[in-house]
Write a sequence for this structure.
């Protein structure tokens, strides 16, 4: 499995943005320890980055690598959906403790 | 807050869209957002794009186009057919896209709460980058279908509208409707996003599509009420026809011009008024085309220019007819005093014909306009649409301070009135009736000036003949009644004498 390149776009240091950062860090440490690179981009500081990536909603997590490219929108509070979005959910994940 | 007795201070931004600023009484509210709602195919995207295009073309105001549905490339190509070179404007820093259309092939997973903060940031950055005065957002429905959470989307669109207001830009947002007459927009956005609502309609009416535009509300300011027809011209985009918004402010002239026939001039009290509209009604073959031919020739003889809009006969047919009456259309055209435009009525909708006629008038600058016949145009429209067309055309002609002569065909050979006549007689300044009169097994032709606004005129119904030199008006039908009703009846001389004595010159008090 190749390295994961993850970009998280947020709009300023809002509680929502901070929550997304914390959730992503927690998921990466447990699921992708040692094989991920994470970048946080604040679109207020860099609107052009949002333009280039065509971001409209924040927080948006883009899985740039490995392909295919995926977008996950929201504060990443639903871990199962994040795992689906990152193509990390295998058949064994179908049984688990869901909270939603 | 507005103080009592003081007018609210909502100013308008002229859109530059032809005719729209009349119904908006100056444009759309400046510094605010106007919702443009319409069903599929009602020209919302064109309106949004034209709002920016006219800003650049007419007012040197830059614009930002936010697209949620089509890509920037698609919009560039689509509006290219209207003659707008968006790519050139982009290169000049006058137009910029915020492309928020979904990316093909990328799946979106939603996990938890989100906002549209990045969109607001991108729009703000784009506005600053080109120094935009105008922003167009197309369309809100696409945002709702993209994100399941309607509550968040509504709140975020409100935030976007507030951000636009804070930047002082004037914006339009488009939204879908499911029905032409019903709730304003599908997702109920209008209630919280914007105080101003414009509705575009594309209604099927008697097998014909009719586009209309209605300003539903402009909060804190005035606008024209009701629906106004509009059309989309290939090289111009939307053209609104501001019917009742037309003001009756044209000056009235007492200058007389010749009808091209000295006898008819005499019947009209010395000719037509220079800025009047004359309706000539009659059955087929009765002399209507001749009347318009003489009207044109009369102008040419004075060195005036005439425009003939022909909807029934080709240019060559008209020229041949005219030469049969001793009038040389070819020579008039060579001398630049005549322009004949022959159009098949079914070739376009009535709105398009109207704009075509206006353009011909504006480019040729005639002193006289003849339309032969107006009835032919009735076929391509509903009655309401036709009436609006005539009002608009009449008003336009009067504003140019030129004379217009329209012909109308009656359905029955004898007497009767044409549908055209019924609907437009109150709009025209003068009405001339041409009628067949059956007398002792012979068809004669009769002419009368039914109405001549602002002038005395001959009240007789006079016989006329047509020969190689044109129309010759003769004596009145003294011994016939019922001509206009279509039932001419010969009256013996004795009875005429008796009738004459019934009405003496004595007034009620005796003279």
């Amino acid at each position: 499995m190749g390295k994961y390149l993850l970009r998280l776009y947020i709009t300023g240091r809002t509680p929502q943005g901070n929550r997304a950062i914390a959730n992503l860090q927690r998921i990466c440490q447990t699921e992708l320890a040692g094989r991920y690179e994470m970048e946080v981009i604040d679109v207020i500081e860099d609107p052009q980055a949002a333009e280039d990536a065509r971001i409209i909603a924040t927080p948006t997590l883009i899985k740039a690598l490995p392909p295919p490219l995926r977008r996950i929108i929201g504060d990443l509070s639903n871990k199962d959906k994040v795992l689906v979005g990152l193509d990390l959910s295998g058949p064994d994940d179908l049984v688990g403790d869901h909270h939603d | 807050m507005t103080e009592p007795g003081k007018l609210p201070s909502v100013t308008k931004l002229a859109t530059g869209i032809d005719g729209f600023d009349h119904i908006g009484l100056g444009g759309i509210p400046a510094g605010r957002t106007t919702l443009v709602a319409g069903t599929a195919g009602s020209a919302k995207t064109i309106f949004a794009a034209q709002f920016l295009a006219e800003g650049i073309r007419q007012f040197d105001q830059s614009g930002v186009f936010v697209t949620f549905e089509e890509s920037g490339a698609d919009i560039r190509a689509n509006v290219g057919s209207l003659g707008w070179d968006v790519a050139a404007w982009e290169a000049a820093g006058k137009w910029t896209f915020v492309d928020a259309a979904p990316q093909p092939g990328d799946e979106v997973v939603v996990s938890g709460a989100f906002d549209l903060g990045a969109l607001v940031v991108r729009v703000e950055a784009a506005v600053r980058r080109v120094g935009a005065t105008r922003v167009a957002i197309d369309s809100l429905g696409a945002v709702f279908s993209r994100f399941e959470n309607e509550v968040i989307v509504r709140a975020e669109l409100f935030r976007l509208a507030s951000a636009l207001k804070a930047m002082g830009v004037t914006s339009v947002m488009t939204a879908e409707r499911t029905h032409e007459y019903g709730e304003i927009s599908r997702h109920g956005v209008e209630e919280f996003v914007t105080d101003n609502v414009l509705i575009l309609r594309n209604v099927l009416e008697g097998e014909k599509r009719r586009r209309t535009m209605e300003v539903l509300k402009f909060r804190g300011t005035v606008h024209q009420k009701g629906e106004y027809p509009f059309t989309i011209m290939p090289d111009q985009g939307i053209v609104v026809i501001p019917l009742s918004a037309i003001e009756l402010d044209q000056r009235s002239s007492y200058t007389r011009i010749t009808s091209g026939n000295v006898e008819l001039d005499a019947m009209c009290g010395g000719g037509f008024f220079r800025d009047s509209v004359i309706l000539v009604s009659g059955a087929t073959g009765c002399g209507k085309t001749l009347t318009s031919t003489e009207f044109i020739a009369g102008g040419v003889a004075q060195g005036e220019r005439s425009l003939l809009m022909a909807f029934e006969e080709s240019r060559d047919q008209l020229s041949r007819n005219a030469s049969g009456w001793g009038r040389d259309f070819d020579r008039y055209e060579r001398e630049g005093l005549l322009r004949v435009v022959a159009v098949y009525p079914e070739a376009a909708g009535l709105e398009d014909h109207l704009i075509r006629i206006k353009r011909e008038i504006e480019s040729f600058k005639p002193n006289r306009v003849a339309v032969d016949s107006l009835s032919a145009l009735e076929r391509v429209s509903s009655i309401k649409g036709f009436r609006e067309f005539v009002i608009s055309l009449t008003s336009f002609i009067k504003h140019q301070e030129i004379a217009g002569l329209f012909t109308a065909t009656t359905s029955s050979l004898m007497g009767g009135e044409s549908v055209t006549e019924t609907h437009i007689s109150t709009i025209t300044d003068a009405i001339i009736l041409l009628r067949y009169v059956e007398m002792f097994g012979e068809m004669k032709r009769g002419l009368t000036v039914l109405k001549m606004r602002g002038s005395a005129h001959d009240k007789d119904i006079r016989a006329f003949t047509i020969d190689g030199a044109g129309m010759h008006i003769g004596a009145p039908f003294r011994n016939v009644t019922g001509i206009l009703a279509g039932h001419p009846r010969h009256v013996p001389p004795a009875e005429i004498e008796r009738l004459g004595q019934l009405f003496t010159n004595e007034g009620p008090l005796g003279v």
About this structure: The two ends of chain B are 70 Å apart (CA to CA).
